[in-house]
Give the backbone structure.
Amino acid sequence: MLRHTLIFLEYELRNSLRNPAWALFGILQPLTYLLLFAPLVANTTAGGGMADTLLAFTPGIMVMIALFGSLLVGFTMIAEMRDGYLERLAVSPARRPAIVLGRTLRDVLVLVVQALLVAAMAVVLGMRPSLPGLAVMLLLMAATGLLASGLSYGMALALRDEASMSAITQFFALPLILLTGIMLPISLAPDWMRAVATVNPLYHSVEAGRALFAGDFGAPAIPVAFAFTLILGLLTLAWSVSSIRKTAF
Amino acid sequence: MIIEAHGLRKTFTARRGGEPIEAVKGVDLRVAAGQIFAVLGPNGAGKTTTIRMLATLVPPTEGVAKVAGHDVARDPARVRENIGYVGQGGGVDENAPARAGLVLAARLGGMSRRHARIRAEELIAAFDLADFADRPVRTLSGGQKRRVALAVGLVNRPPLFFLDEPTTGLDPQNRAHLWDEVRSLRARGTTILLTTHYLEEADALCDRLVIIDHGRVVAEGSPAELKKEVAGDVVTLRLAGAAEPARALLSGLPYVREVRTEGETLRAYLGGERDLPHLLRALEAGGLAIDAISLDRATLDDVFLRHTGRSLRDAG
């Protein structure tokens, strides 16, 4: 199983390297936010300079890549189902969990690299994060990638259709983004909205990222974000693995 | 027997209520190793479902099947080690070049990186893929894609190879190439089970076949045996305004097995191969003038017609 997972990982990474444009597209929108939105926020926040604003804003942008990138990986799988590619893999000697695991690992790696690029961009713009904090944040991004791509493959295998898949991801993307406090701080929100935000794993990831960038390793948001994201990530991974097992008996 | 199936049935239950669909209603198959075996039938007859059950893609609702010595329901993993499968779509990753797909299949089959590369080279040479082996598969033509799909399916030298409608959508030249490739596989000892709705394909290519209609096997044998059962020679006649009396006359002749009418045209199935002169004399003696006549050997379409009451060309 491990061997097959690594074989698929290598194969998929080569595919990604052959078409790096897609991974770049994935961070284009978050980067645009970073360039156009962060200065706006900086001017509306009293006393906050660009560096401080970026420190609070960049973790949110990283989480956005997961939403606009990793959550969409399932679309490729729907095309693979239609071409009969997945079906052929299912009756080959390939271990079926490895088909999903190899892809998920690839997505996690791609997401971490994308997050690193976003961080580098923010540093260019003037952000000075805690370096150990940044490293831990990248680990949290890996866990977020697990969650997003597990969810995406699970949906793809369950829905098997681009139209319903895009309807559902569109439907969830906006509230998930708003309830992370990336755009506007959740502290401005009414009580009920703050209560809803606490069940959004992405909210905790953003909070944890802000603490980590500020070098505040004692923040309770950090263990909460890791626990929340990892548990959900493993659950969605289990879902996608059990779904791929059903493509053949 | 490399495939032995008894009473295979598949009923699909519709998701939201709806009538269950009986795609396959009890199919028996015995395929000897080393043969090209065809499953012939019109679209919707249950060919694809049958081959998918044998290739461990869908579990049979009822019945048992042993493929390469292993039970498909109980031991699908062992079955998969012994088969290659190329579905209707081809099933090749469209975004990767053929070479990468070949190496992937070889690595998954247990080969080392080095052996996998060597095996990929061998297949690129054997299937003449060199010109486009490093281009993404989505940029290839239909015939090229089909060759890549075949090569990928054969990487691990499976003793049994499943081909679902292998030539659908191919032009005559590519079809002939594919037939040659299937024959050369047989020459190397591979057993091939293919489905087709082309009569010529089953006739030209296979050693034995079953004809499936409405989820059931209606005939089985070698193409020659099946055709011989129907007739030696087939005479097609056009008689202006005299079809009905001619039919009555011909039906009464001892060496005419069967007569079918299609408008003004009659098709008489003769038992032997030397009865045409007798038939012509009988028509002359009956005072019936022939407008047009042709003599053919029986085809698999005649076999299909005999067993199902309709022509495969009409059945689609």
Remarks:
- Chain B has a mean pLDDT of 92.
- Residues 232-297 of chain B form a domain with the Alpha-Beta Plaits fold (CATH 3.30.70.100).
- The radius of gyration of chain B is 23 Å.
- The CA atoms of residues 236 and 267 of chain B lie 5 Å apart.
